[in-house]
């Protein structure tokens, strides 16, 4: 295979000769330049060296001994280094050439484009002209990488970066490796793609994913049970099909607490003027 076919990948090549600006490496059929700016190694003719191949500004394969985590078929975090209107966002993967995430792969809303310093979870793709581009991690990839949260994570503070954003909400990949969803009602403003955010876990799903709220805690003194009920109510946009006459087994399944504890939590919320009950449902008063 031609060396151009390995752009974006790791390859072991042999030093063919030293040149004015670095070394020429060979696979026995083709030579490729390892520029002196792309290595800190002192090499001799005949040495074998592991390199990462990327395309120069003319689309030609060139080598570096810096092996980035982000490669074709390999995902990792990369920091945004620049944004250019009409082109997209450039990312630093650790080599001398920045990688482009094209404008067509960014959100349509310019306000949620990443800015310098934001982190994106990405891989690389190579087009027919041997140009390397950035590819964002999709939900199936995040599903492969994620760590499952447990009920013990409920109400914990978490931090993470936004990997997908839409009108209905934002998706987060946390420092712990949790995959989470932030409903539009649980964010004061829509976060940028790649932005680092901090919130709290307001629900843990059966598949180990989480729902997250970026809204400030409204009632720090509610107590754990009341906070749990109130967080669930907020996650459901201020309405839930549970009240003080709900069946004990339904309460246990949904909230993991006894009916007595649930009624005390509801009583606390109603006393504080946060909720009211009607026809088998509980509503958030602030949503009226």
If you had to describe this structure to a student in words, what would you say it looks like?
By secondary structure, the chain is mainly β. The protein has helices spanning 139-145, 224-235, 248-255, 259-271; strands spanning 10-19, 22-26, 31-35, 48-55, 61-64, 76-84, 88-92, 99-102, 119-126, 132-136, 157-166, 169-174, 179-183, 196-204, 210-213, 239-240, 275-278, 281-284. The chain folds into four domains: 3-64, OB fold (Dihydrolipoamide Acetyltransferase, E2P) (Beta Barrel); 76-137, Nucleic acid-binding proteins (OB fold (Dihydrolipoamide Acetyltransferase, E2P)), CATH 2.40.50.140; 146-213, Beta Barrel (OB fold (Dihydrolipoamide Acetyltransferase, E2P)); 235-287, Arc Repressor Mutant, subunit A, CATH 1.10.10. The chain is built from four helices and 18 strands. The strands form four sheets. It has a five-stranded antiparallel β-sheet, with no helix packed on it. Helix 2 (224-235) packs across helix 4. The model has no long low-confidence stretch (mean pLDDT 91). Belongs to the CvfB family. InterPro entries: CvfB_fam, CvfB_S1_2nd, CvfB_S1_3rd, CvfB_S1_st, CvfB_WH, NA-bd_OB-fold, S1_domain, WH-like_DNA-bd_sf. It comes from Robertmurraya kyonggiensis.
Fold topology:
Elements: E1 10-19, E2 22-26, E3 31-35, E4 48-55, E5 61-64, E6 76-84, E7 88-92, E8 99-102, E9 119-126, E10 132-136, H1 139-145, E11 157-166, E12 169-174, E13 179-183, E14 196-204, E15 210-213, H2 224-235, E16 239-240, H3 248-255, H4 259-271, E17 275-278, E18 281-284
Parallel strand pairs: 13-15
Antiparallel strand pairs: 1-2, 1-4, 2-3, 4-5, 6-7, 6-9, 7-8, 9-10, 11-12, 11-14, 12-13, 14-15, 16-18, 17-18
Helix pairs in contact: 2-4
């Amino acid at each position: 295979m031609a060396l151009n076919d390995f752009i974006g990948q790791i390859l072991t090549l042999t030093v063919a000769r030293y040149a004015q600006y670095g070394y020429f490496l060979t696979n026995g059929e083709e030579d490729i330049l390892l520029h002196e700016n792309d290595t800190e190694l002192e090499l001799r003719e005949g040495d074998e060296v592991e390199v990462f191949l990327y395309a120069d500004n003319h689309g030609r394969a060139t080598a570096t001994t810096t092996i980035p985590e982000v490669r074709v078929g390999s995902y990792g975090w990369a920091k945004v280094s620049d944004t250019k209107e009409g082109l997209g966002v450039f990312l630093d993967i650790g080599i001398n050439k920045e990688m482009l995430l094209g404008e067509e792969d960014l959100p349509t809303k310019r306000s949620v484009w990443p800015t310098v310093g934001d982190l994106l979870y990405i891989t690389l793709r190579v087009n027919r002209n041997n140009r390397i581009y950035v590819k964002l991690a999709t939900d199936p990839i995040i599903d492969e990488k994620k760590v499952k949260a447990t009920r013990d994570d409920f109400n914990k503070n978490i931090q993470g970066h936004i990997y997908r954003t839409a009108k209905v909400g934002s998706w987060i990949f946390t420092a712990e490796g949790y995959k989470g969803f932030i409903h539009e009602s649980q964010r004061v403003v829509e976060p940028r793609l790649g932005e680092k955010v901090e919130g709290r876990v307001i629900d843990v799903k059966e598949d180990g994913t989480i729902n997250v709220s970026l809204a400030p805690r409204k009632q720090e003194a509610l107590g754990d049970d009341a906070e749990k009920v109130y967080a669930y109510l907020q996650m459901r946009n201020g309405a839930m099909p549970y009240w003080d006459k709900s069946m004990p087994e339904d309460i246990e399944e949904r909230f993991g607490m006894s009916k007595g504890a649930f009624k005390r939590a509801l009583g606390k919320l109603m006393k504080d003027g946060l909720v009211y009950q009607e026809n088998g449902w509980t509503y958030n008063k602030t949503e009226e």
